[in-house]
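call fold(seq) -> tokens
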Amino acid sequence: MKRFVTLALVSALVLGASSIVYANVCAFDAVPAATILFPFVSLDYNNPLAGTSTTFSITNVSAEAQVVHVTVWTDFSAAILDFNILLTGYDVISMNIRDILINGQLPVTKNEAHSGSEGVSANGPVSAGNQLNGAWLNPGMDDPQATADLAAGRCDSSNSSYPGLYSTPIPAGFLGLFQGYLQVSQTVDRLHSNDCFKSFDSPYTLTPAPFWASRDTTYPTNMYITADVVENCNKLFPDAPGYFSAEARMDNVLIGDVFWTNTTERFSEAGNAVHLEADMDLANVATTAPSGFPVSFYHRYASGEGVSDYREPLPTAWAFRYLGAGIADIGTDVRVWKGSSAETWTYDLERAGAVAVSPDALIASNCHAYTYYAWDEDEMVTTVTSVPWSMPGGESVIPNLIPLETQEVPVDQFDTPGAFGWMLFVWPASNYPPGAPMDNFDDFYQTWMGVKYNAAGQWSAAIDGAVMANFNCFSDQVLPNLGVNYSYVDAAGYVVSPGMVMPAN
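ret:
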């Protein structure tokens, strides 16, 4: 999805710089953003000191001080914990999920002035041999703003959600509640259903149980985290009324990264967080949802307030290599985040009983699931699809292995034609029949996919998948063509959305 930026630059050579719109909206790229998503966060409650844990960082790349609101979500998108961070200009903060959920220690940041020489941003070094030496007129970076210089009332010590109060750890009782909520997907009944209409009349248990259904508390616990630039320190979850109408800001100033570690198994991987830009022009690019707003990352929450969050939506098709399917000591784990655009939960996962943080059971169906293809190195292919996804029909149905909002699934669970190859995953609505009327769409999914490779306990590596389509931005990116050889700009260098009429030059 980065291709349109390149094409726009090429267009500049022909049409002149005045013809270009500089925007990265709907490109899956690591650029300063208003929202940061850490799509897969994992913690081993059984071995918190040496087992699986996740470290994540947030950097403010602007000179302006920022208020950042962080939310921890379960793997079925229940928000359970939120807190605020104060960042000076050019500030960076790193957090380990172990410190937060095991030790109860939130990061303490304060509304305070700079001290000493802190805050001085002079010119960078220019070597004597540099052709610009002696003519370097750039004044250097703006001085960073202290958190004490934030407008009165945004986040000072009189605010009950002021992060300078976090020096007192979270009480053990609350940490126990968080653990219980986070491990629901590992402890309650996990069933499948052949009912596409979300009733619980006929759930069934698959034998043998697929990975998500057999995963118990001996496995690490998974979650995801969001971080938003906000107006004030607050105690609102993003799914609460008023969050987007009053708090969320449009400042694209944050970058983030993530480290996954396991010292017991000698694994460590790192990657960029998912950067979600805010742009008022999103409505000119993205697919329009039935609510009338463009599909956006937080659409399922913001649209209920009658507003848009204007965060770019995530893609709907991915490709990646797999290694060592069925071979001992070589493994590929598929990491997946997915979210509905219309509902607070995904259509292919129902929560029985209480629908908030503590359901009685989780029931997966294939009614709005994925389509995938797997090719080996001799181009042999396995496809799991039935116009457009595997449909209900009892226990003969291939089970939905990815019903949660975030998960890690061994590639051996999927039907692959060989030990090495590559996979293509296509999500609703990119796997919806071409030309289907818009009112037939139940939902617009948003997804992120990555893979972790490991071998013989000696090494591990993790990468993002390659984006193959984003229906949420380009509604003609559906099977069979997706985004292959797709033009993302018109002759004038503008981003083109299907059906969008561009103004004459």
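Residues 1-22, 391-395, 498-505 have pLDDT under 50 and may be disordered.
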